[in-house]
Amino acid sequence: MRCLLCQQSFIQSLTLADIIYFRVLTTSPICLNCHRKFLQIEPDLACSGCGRLQTRQGLCQDCLTWQKKYPQLLHNRALFTYNDAMQEFFKQYKTSGDYQLSNCFTSVLGQFLKKMPADDYVPIPTDTKSYQRRGFNPVCGIFGKVVPLYECLNKRELPVKQAHKNRSERLATAQPFQANMDKCRPLAGKQIILLDDVYTTGRTLFHARDCLLRAVPSLKITTVTLAR
Amino acid sequence: MNCEALFGRLEIVDQTTSKTWQDLFPGLIVQPAMSLTNTVVTCRRCQARYSKKSVQLPSGTYYCPTCLLLGRVCSNEYLVSLPEKNHFTGPTELTWRGTLTPAQTEAAEMIKQIFKQHRQHLLWAVTGAGKTEMLFPGLFAALSQGKRVAIASPRIDVCLELLPRLQQAFAQTEIMLLYGDQPEPYHYTQFVLCTTHQLLRFYQAFDVLVIDEVDAFPFAQDQQLHFAVQQARKTISACLYLTATPGPALLQQVRKGVLGLSYLPRRYHGHPLALPHRHLALNWYKQLRKGRLPSVLNRLLKDKVQRQQSFLLFVPKIALLKPLAQLLSNNFANLKFTTVYAADPKRAEKVQAMRQEKLTALLTTTILERGVTFKNIEVIVLGSDDSVFTTSALVQMAGRVGRHRDYPTGRVDFICAGYSCAMKQATKQIKQINQKAGF
Ligand SMILES: [Zn+2]
Ligand SMILES: [Zn+2]
Ligand SMILES: [Zn+2]
To answer: CATH number for the domain including B202?
Structure first.
């Protein structure tokens, strides 16, 4: 088998239990060497607001700041720390547009989300222009093979790309999302998980939550990202 | 976009842009970026074939993962280029002040003829023959006639090492360096220095194409290299392959008569290549795992330390570097050394420190096998029978020794748990080339 990230061929290491229980289906398409470069976040050591890895309990500095504006924080859960390896992954996946990489974390995400049941999973959308340029929505790519997605948000085109803005500019950005009312109505009273690829400042997810809550005030929303 | 940037260069554009450019640039060559059959898509830029299902995007189009690093090719896009017009005023002077030995002069004249007569040729030149300098007269002649020239190598290290030497020799000519992650955008130059991968972005551009260290190319990808070379050179053009250890694919082309062959068996200082000493050490790995220096290695190291000889110690796996470094510092407290591997962020600094003789030894994986030269160096390969050490890698590692005219000799030692085919081949090749040189 060829590793999706480094192109080296590798042998799936199976434990005896894997063989007995036919657990081959959950094997990873990336090699152990590449896998080790990603830093999985221990849930007990994560900030209860944004899900980042930290050494102390409770909320991190960023979340304390957010709390002044949003008393109700996101309770985001992230699977990995956004380190060099993750940055490199997103560069190849999103910037270069290597859609095959959307399979990299399917099995780990599957195990991760199994512990977080929800009625529906709502991905953060991309705007039409990015979708046409890239040919895919990166969030749907990553999560679409893991859980059924419920797409009920639209995104307006933004004049400046997010990546080119600095932190304060990003924080000040106006609401980019619109709720698709027809799709939102059936969600009343449900528990949903909002999905995004990276939690950077939290701005995007707060906007998306605001937008959904305005459309369906009875929604219960938590969030999950691949990286923080 | 100015038209010069499209001379001999392939760009990927969408349908609208391709229409606009067709009006803007008469003579624009346009082709669909991918060709489709019922089940298979083929990338027109790199020839990679995929089943449609495996490379389809949710939007419906297909893309090519193989040449993605050169910018993504999609099935709804077009590859466009303009015919090479050779809009150059070549240099008037070769600004190289060195001299060639009589043997080098002879080879340089031959290379000049190959370029002039648009031939395809393989030059089997021993490591340390001084082949770069031998290219200068031929390259200068080609450039001054307004020909477009490229030197390509599979390894970026080799390109980076070549660039300053070429800039010095051709001070009047701008040289564009092209590789994967480079910051500088492409522009039109007469002289291009690039990794072989980058050749896929050219279309019938070069009158003279030199492929340096062609053996560094993984054998499995020979087909790809061949395609890239054919794509990038003009229909009537010269193509010169340089290597110290030709692989089977090139030799086969020689046998078929497609490729001319000549040898350059002598190093510029006239000394033969160092023949590796082989040491069978069945338990070297076990000893290392038990926290002991393998006895052969210990003996060799003691000798080096005593002679204050600087050396490279190659190992087959990155994982071996750390335990070995620990043992070395325990056993040889005064030895100044460090470890270095391919993805090492401090790689360049460490190599530089070694060059400046601030260090006596480097523990390394195969990365330093070629391109990099040290003035006075000896070589030990631990686990030389490991499958990562191919024939060409072994020949190249041994070839690090004796490069400088002040230190033309030195020891090469292979420590192994058995004799691999590659080791036998490497020794055979070294003997063969020494024999050809009359030793
Ligand atoms: Zn890998
Ligand atoms: Zn936090
Ligand atoms: Zn391709």
So the answer is: 3.40.50.300
Within a domain: residue B270? Answer: no
Within 8 A of B54 by CB-CB distance, chain A residues are 100
CB A194 within 8 A of CB A221: yes
Nearest to B10 by CA among B209, B149, B202, B205: B202
Q: What mean pLDDT comes out for the span B246-270?
A: 88
Give the count of Cβ contacts less than 8 A between chain A and B: 32
Domains of chain B: total: 3
Q: Is the per-residue pLDDT at A24 higher than 80?
A: no
Asked if residue B203 has pLDDT above 90, the reply is yes
Query: Which residues does residue B176 pair with via DSSP β-bridges, in sequence order?
Result: B192
- State which CATH number among 2.60.120, 3.40.50, 2.30.230, 3.30.60 fits the domain covering A39-227: 3.40.50
Q: Which of B236, B264, B292 represents a domain boundary (last residue)?
A: B264
Distance from the Cα of A65 to chain B's closest Cα (Å) equals 36
* Domain ranges across chain A: 1-36, 39-227
pLDDT in tens, B147-187: 999 999 988 878 888 999 999 999 999 999 999 877 789 99
Whether this model's pTM surpasses 0.80: yes
- Check if A132 contacts B (Cβ < 8 Å): yes
For residue A36, the distance in angstroms to the closest alpha carbon of chain B comes to 14
pLDDT in tens, B354-376: 888 999 999 998 766 666 778 89
Burial letters B105-128, b for 16+ CB under 10 A, else e: eebbebbbebbeeeebbbbbbbbb
**Any domain includes B94:** no
Q: Give me the domain span that covers residue B351.
A: 277-436
Distance between Cα A199 and ligand 2 center (Å):
10
Contact flag B54-A132 (C-beta cutoff 8 Å): no
Instruction: Please check whether residues B319 and B345 belong to one and the same domain.
Output: yes
Would you say B284 and B297 are in contact if contact means Cβ atoms under 8 Å apart?
A: yes
Q: How far is the CA of B243 from the centre of ligand 3 (A)?
A: 27
Distance CA A84, CA B120 (A): 44
Contact B359, B382 (CB under 8 A): no
Say yes or no: B126 and B250 in one domain: yes
Q: Nearest Cβ partner of B58 from A92, A96, A136?
A: A136
Among chain A residues, CA nearest to B68: A96
Measured in whole angstroms, the distance separating CA B348 from the mean position of its chain's CA atoms is 17
The shortest CB-CB distance from B59 to any of A92, A98, A135 is to: A135
Alpha-carbon distance A127 to nearest alpha carbon in chain B (angstroms): 13
Q: Chain A contact for B332, CB < 8 A?
A: no
> Do B315 and B248 share a structural domain?
no
A25 — pLDDT class (breaks 50, 70, 90): very low
d(CA B310, CA B27): 59
Tokens (6 digits) for B124:
């089997």
